[in-house]
Design goal:
Helix content: 55-70%
Number of strands: 4
Largest sheet: 4 strands, antiparallel
Structural class: alpha+beta
Order of helices and strands: EHHEHHEHHE
Oligomer: single chain
Strand order of the largest sheet: 2-1-4-3
Length: 128
């Protein structure tokens, strides 16, 4: 039996709202290029399986507080969001730095959290 992969999309709310407004008026590629220039990496598509592995490792090497904040940005089977503060971002990044995970995923999460903090936007995760 083949199992269907379930994906989550972690993104900066302001960037997603800008994308929706932009594609109503302009070409999708122009909008994507604009958002990449403005936000850098502003979303991450991650399988629930990969997220589960990250959270499992975090439960072993991160403090309970760090792990709970990291858990807030993953949406295993639901939709959730958080407005990051400097303290929360620091906890999550300290935890991510200790995890043996894909460097691209770590960098994407780091950029998303730092940029969301900079522009004061919520980070949301939704299941696809």
């Amino acid at each position: 039996m083949n199992s269907v992969k379930v994906w989550m999309l972690i993104y900066i709310v302001d960037a997603m709202n800008e994308l929706r407004r932009c594609v109503a008026l302009y070409d999708e590629f122009e909008c994507s290029a604009y958002l990449s220039r403005k936000y850098g990496t502003w979303f991450l598509r991650l399988s629930n399986e990969d997220a589960g592995r990250i959270l499992n490792e975090a439960s072993k090497v991160c403090t309970q507080v760090e792990g709970s904040f990291l858990y807030c940005i993953f949406c295993l089977g639901s939709q959730c969001g958080m407005e990051p503060s400097e303290t929360i971002v620091r906890y999550i990044l300290d935890c991510l730095n200790r995890l043996d995970i894909n460097q691209n995923a770590r960098d994407a999460l780091r950029n998303i959290l730092n940029k969301a903090l900079e522009v004061r936007s919520e980070v949301v995760c939704s299941s696809e």
